[in-house]
Amino acid sequence: MQVVLPVVFALCAALSNGIAVVLQRVAALSVPRSDRFRVGLMLDLLRRPAWLGGMLAVIGAAVFQAAALAGGAMSVVQPLFVVELPLALVIGSRVLHRRMPPRGWVAVACVVVGLGAAMGAASPTAGVTQAPLVRWVPALAGCGGAIVLLSAGALRRPEGRFRAGALGAAAAIAYALTAALMKSAMHTLARDGLVAFFLVWQTYAFAAVGVCALFLLENAMQAGPLVASQPALTLGDALVSLALGITLYEERVRGGWWLVPELLGTALVAFGAVALARVPLATFMAAPPPSTARAQG
Q: What is the C-alpha separation between 253 and 264, in angstroms, rounded?
């Protein structure tokens, strides 16, 4: 039960995020078209039940993720979020009445099978519930430095695949760091109560880094094709979360010959993520909505 509940909560979070993506796309397609940003856009969206439902789904996803991290290991919870894109596309194909091509279903199967194989081979186990400051300092410095370097490198290049991939990788690191900070804050909440939750620095840090992650993701989506940013985001979040779980919380995964199926499973997930990002439905859902198209010149 100690392992099952975090897995269920993590999958519910991925499902909620997938629903949010679809509902927000539905709402964006329903607002009046414009070639420039409009002050009234948010008022238009607030009147759309789909947009409000998407916001509720985002909140639900955050609650489910917090619950999963409070009771489970990062190396178990975070990799499960790779199913978010397959879930969003499956839901989107029904809601948006757009057919998922056969290669899309094959890619979904690759992600699911690869994830199962990698997780089964790794067999992650939980470690400690809190990390000392001496571990946080290098983790924060390393993740922060990598985010800055990737972002700076992206800004030096014109919009395109490299820029989208670099920003996607930066967003992945930020999301993984957010999860690590959230895990610490949630354990404080569960152990010491609400007052203590608002007194620890991790609470404010995960909120700030989470906003940064969302900002980087939005820029990655606008900088280039989804096939460049999505694989970096999908695999980056899972791998960095695994590294943070091991270094911060003393979580363990199997090594030795188990590395072979782990790497094969990871490669299958990567193949599926790239293939899904090429599906026309994924491109349609990731494209800027017509109501928020940038002005020319």
A: 16
